[in-house]
Amino acid sequence: MSTYGDVPQLRFKLHGSLPVCSSLLDGWNGSIWVSMEGLLDSGPAKALEIHLKLSSHLYIPAAMASSSSSTDEASSTSSYIKGKPIFNATHSRACSTAFERVMMTRTDVLTCVHEPFGDPFYYSNEERLGIRFGADTDAMRKVREETGYAGVSYRDTFDDIGRQAAEVCWSFLGWSTAFVFELMRWGGRRGRGCLSRIWRTT
Amino acid sequence: MFIKDMAYYLMPPPSHEGVVQIAPSLVTDDDDDGIPNPTVVPLSRLRDFHFTFLIRHPRRSIPSLYRCTRPPLSDLTGFHYFLAEEAGYRELRVVFDYLRATGIVTDENRFVLDADDLLENPEEAIKRYCGNVGIEFRPEMLSWDKGKGCEMFEKWKGFHEDAIWSDGLKRREKRTREKTEEQEVAEWTEKWGADAAELIRRTVEETKADYEYLRGFREVF
Hints:
Oligomer: heterodimer
Number of helices of chain A: 9
Order of helices and strands of chain A: HHHHHEHEHHH
Mean pLDDT of chain A: 61
């Protein structure tokens, strides 16, 4: 097995399958530090400066995830759930913001999005459903315009969620790729050995 | 990623004229699995999420919602009158049932949390929630700095002041005895007048069945 050959495969898996992506990340989290300790002995401490920001709830829209090649792993309920963004559905005044604040403490693994669908529901010129600000009068039009959401559609809201998630995802990809290359560059033969060990644990 | 949102934003309210259909901007060709979709969001997009549910007894949520539509809070919220359809219980139930019918929510992955259970067993509730959604529980999840990171609540000003200025989730003693309906109505009358109290009472009555239905699926503590 070529160590170098595994790099594109990692990228493919990140793109192609959320469940696999998550389980890879979990495996990495533990393994990387063990491997890096090994690297310390051999010299360059620079590798230790590389910190991976891991997220187990990367959001990849269905279209991007359609190339999933790992149905076996995806069928495991826990890992399947693990890779999906969480949608905590609720009704008005259910203490949901307090609950949200709990989840907001985990910026290491979660990006929190607060009531995004209220924008098109109340204010969208084209797709609003709620009647509170919905009247076709100048006064209400002005209210909707002033929120800045009058031009927003349900698709825009999904796209915005996707964009926020993509930032996390690309940030991870960037870090992980940098890590892999740094490991190979600085670790030399031992580094590549470390990579093989990481792969085996995932 | 963690999204918190009202189920009622995903479908037309009772006051909406016209048929239920997918939002024009989201229309897709391959989205029919034979079960009528009550939302404006295609099933393929709903499948992208892992859904969990948070509920609270309407005798507590409805007066709280009413309070947001009266001064001084209404000056912040911009919601200047009470609209019963914004309670959102029926819609939450409808979404819940649809997600079950389509297999998105199953007996294995289901998680319905009652706010009373959350407040009476914060640590255990969050632990179980973390287990359900696949993140590691940490005790420090139960406390935070007042106001920190709350910029995103700005767009719904006035609705979240309590949560914004809280500093953690503290265990509340279990209620040993609920107030009677008469006591509650008397309290609401004193605060907001007889008409408002009657409106609240009626809305609680109308939403109770949907709450009880969802509660039947709750995580038991």
